[in-house]
Specification:
It holds the Pfam family Hen1_L. One of its GO terms (molecular function) is small RNA 2'-O-methyltransferase activity. Its cofactor is Mg(2+). This protein is α/β, with parallel strands linked by helices. The protein has two domains: about 190 residues, Hen1, N-terminal domain (c-terminal autoproteolytic domain of nucleoporin nup98); about 220 residues, 3-Layer(aba) Sandwich (Rossmann fold). About 35% of the residues lie in helices and about 20% in strands. The chain has a seven-stranded antiparallel β-sheet. Strands 10-9-8-11-12-14-13 form a seven-stranded mixed β-sheet, with helices on both faces. Strand 11, helix 18 and strand 12 form a beta-alpha-beta unit. Helix 4 packs antiparallel against helix 8, helix 8 packs across helix 10 and helix 9 packs parallel to helix 11. The radius of gyration is 25 Å and the shape is globular.
Length: about 475
């Protein structure tokens, strides 16, 4: 099994410092299942590649076990595919890099650099879509090469083996952590006993990214080898570590439901209660449409959900968010576990991402997307469009987003500053309307636009809203 790691960060040979392996020397390490070889196929100032080759002794793995061994214990794919053996090798051979330590280049450890990782063969019975669902939310672009079962008999179809290349700007320790956790998830078959210590490993290696991964439940379930008790423990601890206390929640700015912070957007926009105006505008538009079933996509900590629950004409409300932290706060704010059963039946909270099709989003009359799209990478915006307008197809969609032209009114900001560090873009009125009209045309909607908040002559309102209606929509 072969893993290669490549960087073009210059000087590229600094990869040797990060991995604590000299590019000028090949090294071999003994493991309890075979040997690991580390060498550098290329090492120049412009580009450097480190290779980890595992030589797994499949016979040695079953020696000493009880009798009654079958042939498939000796003849299997373990020496050739990425599996939990790779995770063990990463920990033992690249352990210092995995833990994010490097005395010679301490600043580089914390720097996201261009990295490319190629897994020569990896098993994935769930197919290419599952590969993308695991790695793309982490910021990687994927190149996937599938293999047929037999080149001479194409009618046999595709195998479940792939060569996968991941590329992205990452810290090396993050890339290694992603591989450490997700390779066994893909393989679906750990080679060693799973116990409580595996929960600790998952929480340690998943810290900082697993908490908000849209597939984290499946990741935990598969990593822990289908042990539901351990999975529940891991997920509950992830939620607890990602949540805030009641005291902390009291000082949270309401805009945090949309990802803003008190010292940034909240401090300026709070003066005009623009967040309340956005929510009220979305609420009134949906209420007046006559919709019965409503989606709140990117529901955050639940302020719009509370407003929707007060309207008796809404028969069912679904709140969706990618953050478990926000959903946990929403549950508390809605008194989710204590409300009357009839009210409880009217609302659902769902953990998912807006860039993946989810059958639970179908069958709704209206959707609110309040200050959410600007948190999506531009490369993922088209996926969001398809999920909402092509797959879910609510009759009415209300989308609000900041008006970038208004930012000049915030006198303390530097030019080009976004309202929040997590914003990937902020649109002018013209840019938002051009995008909205394109979406409406592609997916069979009409669209109209209106300001949110008082308008200034030169720059418009602080926020803007697009109202999309399916051309055949009647609530």
């Amino acid at each position: 099994m072969l893993l290669t790691l490549t960087t073009t960060h210059q000087p590229a040979t600094d990869l040797g410092y990060l991995l604590h392996k000299n590019p000028a020397h090949a090294q071999t390490f003994s493991l309890n299942f075979g040997k690991a070889h580390v060498f550098y196929p290329e090492a120049s100032e412009e580009q450097c590649t480190a290779a980890l080759l595992l030589d797994i002794d499949a016979v040695q793995l079953v020696r000493g076990r009880d009798k009654g061994q079958s042939l498939d214990q000796y003849v299997n794919d373990r020496p050739y595919v990425a599996s939990s053996f790779l995770s063990v090798a990463l920990s033992e051979v690249f352990g210092t890099a995995l833990n994010g330590r490097c005395k010679q280049r301490p600043e580089l450890v914390e720097t996201a650099i261009p990295l490319k990782a190629t897994l020569s063969v990896i098993p994935c019975r769930a197919g290419e879509d599952w590969l993308r669902r695991l790695f793309e939310p982490l910021g990687y672009s994927l190149t996937i090469e599938p293999y047929t079962l037999d080149e001479q008999f194409s009618e046999w179809g595709q195998s479940h083996y792939y060569t996968v290349t991941l590329e992205g700007q990452q810290r090396l320790s993050d890339l290694l952590s992603h591989l450490y956790v997700l390779v066994p998830v893909l393989d679906h078959s750990k080679h060693y006993w799973i116990g409580d210590d595996e929960v600790e490993k998952l929480l340690t290696r998943g810290k900082g990214w697993l908490e908000t991964h849209p597939e984290r439940e499946q990741i935990a379930y598969r990593y822990l080898k289908h042990r539901r008790d351990l999975t529940r423990d891991a997920l509950s601890r992830l939620v607890a570590e990602d949540s805030v206390s009641e005291e902390e929640e009291e000082v949270l700015d309401e805009d945090e439901a949309a990802g803003t912070t008190e010292e940034q957007e909240g401090s300026d926009e709070k003066k005009v209660s623009v967040h309340d105006q956005r929510l009220q505008a979305a609420f009134e538009t949906i209420r007046q449409s006559g919709a019965k079933r409503v989606l709140d996509l990117g529901c955050g900590e639940g302020k719009l959900l509370r407003m929707l629950l007060t309207e008796k004409s809404f028969e069912h409300i679904l709140g969706l968010d990618v953050s478990y932290r926000s959903l946990a706060i929403a549950r508390r704010r809605l008194h989710f576990d204590h409300i009357a059963p009839r009210q409880r039946e009217r609302i659902s909270l769902v953990h998912s991402a807006l860039t993946y099709s989810d059958k639970r989003l179908k069958g709704y009359d209206a959707a609110a997307v309040v200050e959410v799209i600007e948190h999506l990478d531009m490369s993922r915006l088209s996926a969001f469009e398809r999920v909402l307008f092509e797959y879910a197809q609510p009759g009415l969609v209300v989308i609000t987003t900041p008006n970038a032209e208004y930012n000049v009114k915030f006198e303390t900001w530097q030019a080009g500053t976004f309202r929040h560090k997590d914003h990937r873009f902020e649109w002018t009125r013209q840019e938002f309307e051009a995008w909205g009209r394109g979406v409406a045309e592609r997916f069979g909607y009409s669209v109209r636009f209106q300001p949110v908040g008082s308008e200034e002559t030169e720059v418009g309102a602080i926020s803007q809203m697009g109202i999309f209606e399916k051309r055949s929509f009647t609530a």
